[in-house]
Specification:
By secondary structure, the chain is an alpha/beta fold. It is built from 12 helices and 11 strands. Helix 7 links the parallel strand 7 and strand 8. The longest helix has 26 residues.
Length: 330
């Protein structure tokens, strides 16, 4: 697989992207990485690393879309940005997947404009692979669509089911609708309508799920609108960060606690790794005629390395082609 990386997307670009690419190649996570951005800067920084030059190449782009830029305006005016050039490499069949840690709105806009939607898909969505107590689950939409119809939620469930099936190689994944109660009568008009559509969809729909069960692992795919999904994702990230900060604060106050923490170090290490967003490195844009992985703006080299590995796995899974076939049959 050939992974095109928007090398000027993250907050600290291009350093995490460059180091992440070198690490991904050294650990054989993909065949080739194409770093897209200012050729002079990228070539100079790459010179500081030892790697197989045949497996990392540079594609020049003279512009950069900033985090504060307007998503739609910047994509249309900055035609030679590293982001736009990266998705165009996919369109021209010079890359098999794109990774960007840039402005999420701009990444979605550029991907939508260049790839287009899969036929019969009403709206693309952002899907996140999230750790649970027993494995992994997929949450969508995580922010692409603030307002959704019941039909949108149904299609998110269909896309999430296909994603889980071909990425994790498990048939008939369990689908749940995020709601304020488990009963079918709970929720607003949209969730009630979506519930009925999901019941008759032929998917393995197991009903509503409440917020308290998101990380228990009782389901495989959780569906909600982008407004709710984005709040859920950031709340869980914030809670996880706060728990570790509180633990550190208390441990530093007491030598007995420090001794106990030393004995419990393997447990803390396991918890940190399980809750670490850098382990997958990014979210997938689903419903598009192409493959783009969006990473966190604060991504470090480890996150970018894992995003490249994740992107390679997605491209190899055949998820997009299977999605096209599924929605064409519909």
């Amino acid at each position: 697989m050939r992974v095109a990386v928007d090398a000027f997307g993250s907050d600290n670009a291009p350093f995490p992207e460059i180091e992440g690419a070198v690490l991904a190649i050294k650990e054989d996570f993909t065949e080739q990485v194409i770093l897209v951005g200012d050729e002079t800067v990228l070539t100079r920084e790459l010179g500081k690393y030892y790697f197989d030059p045949a497996r990392i190449r540079v594609a020049h782009a003279s512009e950069r879309i900033e985090m504060g830029d307007s998503a739609s305006a910047s994509v249309r005016t900055k035609k030679d940005s590293s982001l736009v050039r990266a998705v165009e490499l996919y369109k021209s069949d010079e890359a098999d997947v794109v990774v960007s840690a840039g402005n999420t709105g701009a990444v979605m806009t550029a991907s939508l404009l260049v790839y287009g939607r899969i036929k019969n898909v009403l709206r693309p969505a952002i899907a996140v692979v999230f750790p649970t107590q027993v494995g992994s689950e997929i949450l969508l939409d995580m922010g692409a669509n603030v307002d959704c119809s019941a039909e949108n939620l149904l299609q998110f469930a269909q896309l999430g089911s296909l994603y889980f099936e071909y990425f994790f190689k498990e048939s008939r994944p369990r689908i749940s609708l995020l709601n304020i109660g488990e009963e079918s009568a709970k929720g607003n008009i949209i969730t009630k309508q979506a519930y009925q559509l999901l019941v008759g969809s032929g998917l393995n729909f197991i009903g509503n799920i409440e917020g308290k069960d998101i990380i228990t692992g009782v389901t495989d795919v959780i569906v909600c609108d982008g407004f709710v999904g984005n709040i859920v994702l950031k709340t869980i990230e914030g809670v996880g960060f706060s728990i570790f900060e509180i633990l550190k604060e208390q441990i530093n106050k007491d030598w007995i606690a420090k001794f106990g923490a030393l004995l419990s170090y393997p447990v803390y290490t396991y918890m940190k790794k399980k809750l670490d967003h850098t382990e997958y490195g990014g979210a997938l844009l689903v419903g598009l005629n192409g493959i783009t992985v969006v990473s966190h703006g604060r991504s470090n080299a480890k996150a970018m390395k894992n995003a490249i590995r994740f992107a390679d796995r997605i491209a190899n899974s055949g998820f997009v082609n299977h999605s096209k076939e599924y929605f064409e049959r519909l």
